[in-house]
Amino acid sequence: MSLPLVYDSASKKVSLAENTSAAAYGDLQLEIAQLNTLIKDYVNANVDVPPLPTRENYTKNLSMMIKKMHESAAASMRTKKYADAAKQFGVALGLAAARPKFENFQMTVSEVLICLVGRCDANMMLENWLDAYVDAELLCQLAANIPENHLRKGVCQMKLGNLLAAKSDLERGLCFNPSHSKLAEELKNVQRLIDEENGEL
Amino acid sequence: MSQSRYDYDENSETWPYFALTSVLVPLVPATWSLVRENLSRGSQDADELRPVSWFRPYNESAQKHYKSKKRTKSIFSRKFVLVALGWLLVAGILYQIMVQEVVVGETNFDPWKILQIDESASEKVIKAAYRKLSLKFHPDKVDTSKMTPKEIEAVDSAYVLINKAYKALTDDAVRENFLKYGNPDGPGDVKHGIALPKFLIEGKISPLLVIAYVLLIAIILPSVVGSWWNGVRSYTKQGLHVDTAAHFLDILINYNPAKLYQIETVLEYLSSATEYQSIDKSLTPEKVLELLLSHLDRKTLESKDEQLKLEVVAMTPKLIIGFIDIASNFRNTDICLKLVEAHRCIIQALNIENNATAYKYRQILQLPGVELENLNTKQPIYTLGKLLKNSSVEPEKFLNCANTDEVLKIASQVPLIEPLECKFKVTGEPYVPPNSTVHISLKFLVKSPAHKSKPEISKLSEEVRETQLKEQETLETLRNPMKIVEDQPAIKLSTAPVYFPDPEYLKENNGWIAFLIIQRDGKLGESPQYVSKVDLSNLQLTQEEFLESKAVVSTFKFPLTAPTPNEEGKFQFRLALRHLVYFGSDVDIPLVMEVENKPIETANKDLYEIEDPEEDSLAGALAQMRGESVRKIEDDYSSSDDESDEEEEEEVDWTDIDTDTDVEEEEKKK
């Protein structure tokens, strides 16, 4: 089976042949994008073999930049400029996610998580529930064992009107820390809302 | 007569019987199964889902057409035609047998028939008959002058036969021969009979027969067996076509957790199923998806497409169930839950994705006759419960549809689950030990959306509490813990959903599907189970009756195939019950499996506990002294307990002595 691929030696990128419809090859396009990112990171590394993904080979500069961005975003949060904070967290997230793919993945994920948590909270403060929900959902997938992530997701679901889903999210959060008072409180809230919606109250 | 000689069935004596047998052997079972099918269909008609008579869905005529087509198809099936032909053939053969006179000859010697007398005739009668016949057929007495040689021979052989018959009945030696070998001449040559007339084998037709035989053995038989085997192989156990199953498998292998899976996404996956080709060869996946989406939007198409749409719609839920089965093997919660949602959307003909308002009001919109355009969407009435119990405006003003009373009645018949108790249970154990077979036992009340709150457990009737809430552990329930579930009546929907064409399907898939989700990773822990047997009688109760002891408790058990973990600890699960037909009847129950190990080593502790019955036995003895005969059995019981107690006490004594001596010895050593 041959695929409609074209390689451009100047930009060192693979792309779909021009006369093919992009819609028919959705999955292929995703894979092409991933391949191009890997190649770009490899070329930028400028060595024959990319260094081992150890703690020492972790680009500190990038970490510093992310940290600075995160700090300024946190400062915006403190001064209640949530819209700015959300934007800054977004930038920090972009930096963390764009880290060369040959570097330590575990450390990358933890950086991404920190930025994502910030953006999610900023969006929640902005009452931008849908964006916050998307972030929270990702957080729950990346770090399911942190009860706060389920709290975030549950609150977003509640605000979006999916009370039953909110309830099961909060209950799931409580599994990881049964004595989490905020979770328990929100769970009570949701239960009250469910009863109200069902006309029980 | 040489050994190799074959007797052909010249007189058609045997082959009709042979043919009759070979026709009847497959025909009788086929007829039986056909009759039973039709009988069961007849009885099903009696408990047919009640259609909503006062509401005409937009696709009513198409639905009628679909149903009548299905009915005629089932009556005039190929099987029916074959069975009818078979019985015609049987009638023909029977007629042939009736008409055929049995000619008496060497092969079927019957002395009574030859002598034209009854089998119970006395010797005198036999003699008289013989005399009469021999006079008539004696070669000397018959006038042979005008006869052909053939006729003369016939007369001769008739006389011989008459003689033989007479001897067979009177002469002892001949009689013995007759009884032993069936003819009076004693053992004859071994003859091979063929239940075919001679012309078929030695006449001109014999090459044709050979060709027919070769065709049967070499071509027809292999091709029939081959096509049957292919048919068996091309469908999985769940009734999915293998290509469809492979397609679903492919989707799940390439599952992308970052992608948002919507109802339309899963419908798109379903639309590539090979099964749709059996409806119409020209159906492309795009066309199927288009038809399904137009069904969700409740749009009328032109008549041919409308027919096609209903057939596609009737097929889809089965595919969804098959897809769920495969997805659950991948432990994929997201797709499974989305598929259930799609199932409901297909049955209720509701598109809840394109329009946020439709999503919010989905529970209301599933009621017959309620349309989004007429709904007063300023009112925050999203659930059936709110509509029935605590509506902010008059339901008429909110729904704006005909027959509000009927709509509300249907709404009140949607079963909801009110969980009372849900726990992990190991049969015959009060706790959950490691490595044991466990099931989830869910006790719940079926509740109408019109019912407010739930009855206190103390308010339930005594019988319900004793038998339904607390299960008695008899030998039978220990052997089959599912018995209490199986004893419940099967779920029957009160009214058929108005837009779905196939009520047959809804007779079986009308309950909840239960998923067991592991909280830690959010994946499915087990294959889903179906809640299909539930007592729905609670729905008919009034609010007072519901709260005052009339309610019955239902049970659902979810058996886990995997044993409990090896180590002690708490394991969190979520039991998600999703209704297959109605929106708004879903329940999520968090569950903790607490695996404890209570080792048998703690026998010492047990000993102290066993001492209690001793007091009991004392009490028993006292009771006996008081002369209470009722206690007698109990007394026997406790006395036997006593013995075992004593034994165990003795053991204790022994150990005591042992330790004592040890101590003494140690002291001595000191």
UniProtKB/TrEMBL annotation, chain A:
InterPro entries, from UniProt? Answer: TPR-like_helical_dom_sf
The protein's matches in SUPFAM superfamilies, at most eight in alphabetical order, are given as: TPR-like
Under what name is this protein listed?
Uncharacterized protein
UniProt source species: Pichia angusta
TrEMBL record, chain B:
Q: Does the keyword DNA damage apply?
A: no
Which parts of the sequence are annotated with region: Disordered?
A: 618-670
Taxonomic superkingdom: Eukaryota
* Compositional bias (Acidic residues): 636-670
Keyword list (alphabetical) reads:
Membrane, Transmembrane, Transmembrane helix
The cross-references to Pfam families, in alphabetical order and at most eight, read:
DnaJ (PF00226)
The family database entries (InterPro entries) matched by this protein are listed as: DnaJ_domain (IPR001623), J_dom_sf (IPR036869)
Q: Where is the J domain?
A: 110-182
Transmembrane regions listed in the UniProt entry: 15-35, 80-98, 205-229
Q: What is this protein called?
A: J domain-containing protein
Which source organism? Answer: Pichia angusta
